Write the structure tokens for this entry.
Amino acid sequence: KKIHRKRNLRREKERERERERERERERERERETESVNERERERERERERERERERERESVSLGQQILCALLSNQRYN
């Protein structure tokens, strides 16, 4: 009976170690997922900044076109 108890204790300890390893693997997967999500959020922020810069360039370009048209119009009047 003592042998069985010892064997059972070893088995239980091994099962507990395996459960802990599985929990650690799960935590690692969560960290990786969070890391991927954060990189995706950063890429989206960068895309938004680029869209904003593009809108600014278009706005400046339109302003320049209007200014040129007004100046050009003044020359002919």
Remarks:
- The first helix runs from residue 2 to 76.
- The chain is about 95% helix and 0% strand.
